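ugh ok fine here u go
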Amino acid sequence: MIKILICDDEAIIRQGIRKILENFYGDIEVRECGDGMEGYKIMAVWNPDAVITDIRMPVLDGLAMIEKALAAGITTQYVVISAYRDFEYARTAIRCGVREYILKPVNRFELTDCTSRLLGIREQEETKEEKGTVPEESGSIGKAVQYIENNFYRNISLEEVSQVVHMNTAYFSTLFKKQTGKKYIDYVTDLRMEKARKLILNTDLKIVNIAEMVGYSSTKHFARIYKEKYGVTPNGER
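structure:
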């Protein structure tokens, strides 16, 4: 059964999201809460597959809740929903490893698309854990991928990440490509572009700010790489 937690201080928003999810998924259990502290406590004991959370909430806001959960080692997937098209909110969200960031009013198709992607990721992770035969090397690459996910906006080098997983740089590079199917630099670039495209399509943030958020000090360089990947300039997406 799919377990999803909805955190929002507006009951009508929570009920609307619940209805969308229950109509879309046949086998689902949904819980609700109205503030981040309550959400954190529910996560700690219930272990939901995904958490859909607003940013602005009383007691503890959505991003602070996520940071608290990460610090406590709680593993789940997050969809951040906000009415605020704010640079700092979006930047903090992606630094917390949030994969999905959508704006109010919630579009039911976008919501179910986001949750389905996240639940697919969760299912893959659980399958690996259940098999119990994942080699230590795969675990190291998984740790490296998570480190990249949490730090991609910085200038993280291959050497830095290889040190995090205690591997020789050359060996790590070879193993990383074997496990992910991509060279390290290509993996980081693709991740940055995916994050950037989501922000471009779903927010009104300036391109220069988005470039900075995903790790590029030069907007010109960012735009060139973006066009190479998607065939259109960042401004051309809008």
